Amino acid sequence: MTATGERRASATDAAILELVRRRSETSRVEIARELGVTPATVTYAVKRLLAAELLVESGFASSRGGKRAALLRLNDQARWAIGCTIDTDRLSLVGVDMSGALRSRIALPLPAAADATEVSAALDRALSMIDPHPDARSSTGIGFAIPYGLGVDGHRLLREIAVDLDIPSITASAPTCAALGSSWSGEQPESGLCATVHMDAGLGLSILQDGRPLQPTTGNGATLDHVVIDPDGPVCECGGSGCLHQYASTRAILRSAQQADGLAQDLGLALTPASRSSDTVLIALAAARGEPRAREVFQGAVTALAQAVWSAISALGIEAIVMSGPAVQAAPVLVGQTMDRLLSGRARNLGMEISVSVSQVQPHPCGVGAAVLALQTFMTPGRASRSGAAGADAGADAGVDTARAFPPP
């Protein structure tokens, strides 16, 4: 087969895998109709996928008077992928199967200001312990969720770690990983644009189009931190004033909590750099319970975030928004109601429709999404993003083997 033919076959195989994953079960006839290709093309592609044990026949469709069509589904156990998140105090791994379902997880503590050697040692230990399902033939790769504010040293650390691995690796921003985890869990529409707003150490925005990151780079995420929401607000290091992070970041939320008449003490906040995320979750949980001081602090941050999000999504005509992040998931009803009131209500006044939901992907949306990123790269080689050439280059930069669609078991 020529190189062009191999690429075409790879693209067809990938499209079929994605369609079967979304439909759970489907027939060859339905695949041909959905993809707009000939039955012969589907027949040859399905033969390849059955031989690679990526698809299996799972029974027959209901009879319509003729021969019943065989149904196809993913062989969930055929491959698995790993997602990794590196926080200030821990390293976490999750394992997902071919459908993106969570099968295994592990978290190991990290010492303060851990260097590459210490992180690599923790990762090696975690990889030796995680075992999603012994029947899986091989790991397709590992995805790393890039945390906010990683910096030059952090990126260098990730590169050093990836070099020593004997499996393909790829990286993407935490918001993009959160978006992918949400999409593969069925929380987002299959087609069109969907924005994921990730609220953690930073305030990130990732846009998926038809379930794929819109931007053709390994970062695939945009920050909302420096969106101006109050021109008369405090001066920011970016040169502007009243930037969002001054109102809605974990630092801002904790600063407000410290000023809220004993709230920090009553909630037992540790108030250390390593505890910012967990402290913010405690505030969100208290706000969800109706604690008035916590509710004022947390709802004020979500209100500021909604203002910045409106500026981004209204300009692009985005109609679906998923909120993500540890604190957001700790107070889903409060966040959902606040965002719906400030975004959906505002959109309806203009004759638009915007749906807002809160992601329920557990245990770590970024970890699950990072594993999905590795799995998606395996299933659609050379297409880590929606831009074919750029996606292939991005994958190569991240250490992803894009040369072969389906490595032998």
UniProtKB/TrEMBL annotation:
<dbReference type="InterPro" id="IPR036388">
    <property type="entry name" value="WH-like_DNA-bd_sf"/>
</dbReference>
<dbReference type="InterPro" id="IPR000600">
    <property type="entry name" value="ROK"/>
</dbReference>
<dbReference type="InterPro" id="IPR036390">
    <property type="entry name" value="WH_DNA-bd_sf"/>
</dbReference>
<feature type="region of interest" description="Disordered">
    <location>
        <begin position="386"/>
        <end position="409"/>
    </location>
</feature>
<dbReference type="Pfam" id="PF00480">
    <property type="entry name" value="ROK"/>
</dbReference>
<comment type="similarity">
    <text>Belongs to the ROK (NagC/XylR) family.</text>
</comment>
<protein>
    <submittedName>
        <fullName>ROK family transcriptional regulator</fullName>
    </submittedName>
</protein>
<dbReference type="InterPro" id="IPR011991">
    <property type="entry name" value="ArsR-like_HTH"/>
</dbReference>
<dbReference type="InterPro" id="IPR043129">
    <property type="entry name" value="ATPase_NBD"/>
</dbReference>
<dbReference type="Pfam" id="PF13412">
    <property type="entry name" value="HTH_24"/>
</dbReference>
